[in-house]
Amino acid sequence: MEQDMHFIENRTFDEIKVGDSAEITRTLQRQDIELFAIMSGDVNPAHLDDEYAKSDPFRKVIAHGMWGGALISAVLGTELPGPGTIYLNQSLKFLRPVGVGDTVVVRVNVREKISDNNRVILDCECVNHSGEIVITGEAEVIAPVEKVRRPRTLLPIVHLHERGARHRQLIESASKLEPIRTAVVHPCDAVSLAGALDAAYERLITPILVGPKSKILKAAAAVGRSLDNVTIVDTPHSHAAAERAVLLAREAKVDALMKGALHTDELMAAIIDKASGLRTERRMSHVFVLDAPHYPKPLFITDAAINIAPDLEVKRDIIQNAIDLAKALGVQIPKVAILSAVETINPKIPSTVDAATLCKMTERGQIVGGLLDGPLAFDNAISKEAAHTKGISSPVAGDADILVAPDLEAGNMLAKQLIYLAGADAAGIVLGARVPVVLTSRADGVLARLASCALAQLLVRRAAPRS
User: Fold this and answer.
1) How confident is the prediction along the chain (467 residues), in pLDDT tens digits per residue?
2) Residue 207: CATH number of its domain
């Protein structure tokens, strides 16, 4: 029976004849398996773990058996008999596995009608693309007696995102390199000390703990961690710890700094001190590296933590720092979107003028290694559809790696909105000093701290020469 695909229509008991049939065709995708696992709670590794599946009898990830059973239910509930059907009984025999990419035809055929209570017996089978029966069985239902024709319900679009997957890949990539010597400044609470020791365990850093030794030992006891073979540089307080850590970096005794249990301002004051700090010709800036659920690659946002109202020269350094980091992480030519409220130059909006000037500076070689475009509104920077609608033709628009905020307020709000409303996982680092600075927040979890250390390690081991 031909049906308008915009509507769903049933067949009543009186309309159904023995021999009637209906079918649907589906191709198994990895997302189907993951959705079924989420819905059912069945996380059997045979369905989800590629490495484990290589050792099981089928040598590959396969669908849950009841995925096929659910498709039989879909035919019964939407095609034959359709809406109003009441399921009474189902028996199934599973003959062959269904793997990712396999196409199956799911078919039901009316074998018997029973007038008592309007029951219908149907033969059921699922046949794969090779013509092999993978599931066979029968279903008993009560067929509807009233005609139903309704608009077909539009299902929600589902986006699956494995939390932390990209950060774990980042950590795995970094752990193949040599750990970097890292001064952990004032790690006198459980969170900051455990973060440093976890990073050491993952071979990201070799920690040098700088702070009051008695407090560090107390924190270690609180988390039940051993500090055997870990260097402790004893200082009287956090201010002294920051100064001593900076001195270790100036003397090239450490490759990076990592913030512990002290205020960011206290650490940064020691780092930016004109006489004894870690300044270079490059302005220091912060970069968030976000794993955003609906974006196909890591997203770099800068500056959201250091420079409050950057002028043109500071923005030049902010961009160059971010480009250097992206290249260290393997992005060959980072695409840089300079953000504003609009995508056209408006003298009344200074950030649009800055964006245009920065693009020209790139043409003149004042910013190197990346591909810049701006001004771009946020939607045009990350959505190709939005850019197309606005008539923007640009290799950056809709495919940005780096988002450059017009000021700290905009950058901070943008990053935190993605973290708290869109479920993005964050890592962050300060660049532009003699050594990278892992600037974690007290709210950061273990994965964020590890990923931030991985950023520093990759930057130190793979950093492009500074311009």
Assistant:
1) 445 568 899 999 999 999 999 999 999 998 899 899 998 999 988 888 888 888 888 889 999 999 999 999 999 999 999 999 999 999 999 999 999 999 999 999 999 999 989 999 999 999 999 999 999 999 999 999 999 999 988 888 777 767 788 888 899 989 899 999 999 999 999 989 999 999 999 999 999 999 999 999 999 999 899 999 999 999 999 999 999 999 999 999 999 999 999 998 999 999 999 999 999 999 999 999 999 988 999 999 999 999 999 999 999 999 999 999 999 999 999 999 999 999 999 999 999 999 999 999 999 999 999 999 999 999 999 999 999 999 999 999 999 999 999 999 999 999 999 999 988 999 999 999 999 999 887 777 788 899 999 999 999 988 644 44
2) 3.40.50.10950
User: Does residue 214 lie in a domain region?
Assistant: yes
Could you report how far apart the first and last alpha carbons of the chain are, in Å? 70
- Residue 140 and residue 14 share a domain: yes
Cα distance between residue 455 and residue 329, in whole Å: 8
Number of alpha carbons in the 13 Å side-chain half-sphere of residue 147: 3
Please indicate, yes or no, whether residues 259 and 328 belong to a single structural domain of this protein. Answer: no
Closest CA to 210 of 189, 180, 240: 240
Please tell me the distance from the alpha carbon of residue 344 to that of residue 391, in angstroms, as a whole number.
12
Does 25 map to a domain? yes
| DSSP state for residue 178 in the 8-state scheme | P
Domain check: are 173 and 274 in the same one?
yes
DSSP assignment string, 214-225: HHHHHHHHHHT-
Domain stops at, among 119, 150, 181: 150
CA distances (Å), 264 to each of 74, 242, 250, 272, in order? Answer: 57, 10, 19, 12
Burial class (CB in 10 A: 0-12, 13-18, 19+), 311: exposed
The whole-model pTM stands at 0.76
